């Protein structure tokens, strides 16, 4: 699938964890059921750390912020607002080639 997948979570104490929603979004982006996703999320982000980073279960403490990281051929962006609303966005992207990420390789390959 080549479209952007976006899940929005409202501030709700019964909502799923961000890591669970991330897993669901990655499965949808690949066009498979979550149970059929053959991807180890731990290779890209620690799900427990992600959940803890934006944990809003403590009364009076608002955690907000944005984190973005690559997962295979996708760019994942998770944004959490002060009211606890969260958005998990999975967008297709091309990995940076070795030539673009390492200028010495590009100049070494130049004629």
From TrEMBL:
Residue ranges constituting the Halobacterial output domain according to the UniProt record: 15-89
Compositional bias annotation for Basic and acidic residues: 86-101
Signal peptide span: none
Region Disordered, residue ranges: 85-111
Taxonomy, superkingdom: Archaea
Composition skew (Polar residues), residue ranges: 102-111
One Pfam family of this chain: HalOD1
Protein name: Halobacterial output domain-containing protein
Biological classification of the source: Archaea, Methanobacteriati, Methanobacteriota, Stenosarchaea group, Halobacteria
């Amino acid at each position: 699938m080549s479209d952007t997948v976006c899940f929005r979570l409202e501030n709700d104490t019964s909502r799923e964890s961000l890591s669970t929603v991330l897993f669901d979004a990655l499965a949808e982006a690949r066009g498979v059921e979550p149970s059929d996703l053959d991807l180890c999320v731990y290779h890209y982000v620690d799900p427990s750390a992600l959940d803890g980073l934006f944990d809003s279960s403590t009364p009076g403490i608002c955690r907000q912020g944005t984190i973005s990281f690559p997962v295979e051929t996708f760019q994942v962006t998770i944004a959490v607002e002060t009211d606890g609303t969260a958005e998990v966005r999975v967008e297709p992207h091309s990995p940076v080639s070795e030539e673009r990420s390492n200028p010495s390789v590009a100049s070494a390959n130049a004629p």
